Amino acid sequence: MEHVRTYFEQVAEIARTIDHDTVEALAVELAALRESNGRLFILGVGGSAANCSHAVNDFRKLCGIEAYSPVDNVSELTARTNDEGWDTVFAAWMKVSRANERDAILIFSVGGGDAARNVSANIVKAVDEAKARGMKVFGVVGRTTGYTAMHGDVVVVVPTVDDTLITPHCEAFQGVVWHCLVSHPGLQVNKTKW
Q1: Third-level CATH fold of 2-182
Q2: Does the reported pTM lie above 0.90?
Q3: What is the secondary structure of 121-163 as a DSSP string?
């Protein structure tokens, strides 16, 4: 029982302390992206990859934003991994998509990548590719010291309450943040059924 109580107390603390101004700034940026007919490429690995798929649906269906995630195309993702390496799969995908300055990436990641330690190199290379193409870089991550937080334009950092639970809290709050965004009156154009 102690774990359950502690876990939900931490959830409440994160909800109270997450930077609401940054979430609002992200909503404004996404509305501007839609107005300029830009596309949103949502990137993540592991549990965050599953969040990408769900978020693509919500941004497309509820907000009318043209959104995609490379993780939804398993054939291309695994072919690129096999032939070219895992570290370039997202950057290569953006090249083929002819991503440009009207577009943006949204990264869901616990750490946000670390170039020096070669952690989530695919996210690091995606951020670099996006910047080289003049794209905005958005994110919902769990570390202020990660590559996404340090190089992104608008990045929501999920406050760390307990290092041993950073992954479940960060991945859960990716969902909380994107659901806040897709229900934001400045973004939502289509109502939900329920």
Answers
A1: Rossmann fold (3.40.50)
A2: yes
A3: HHHHHHHHHHHHTT-EEEEEES-TTSHHHHH-SEEEEPPPS-G
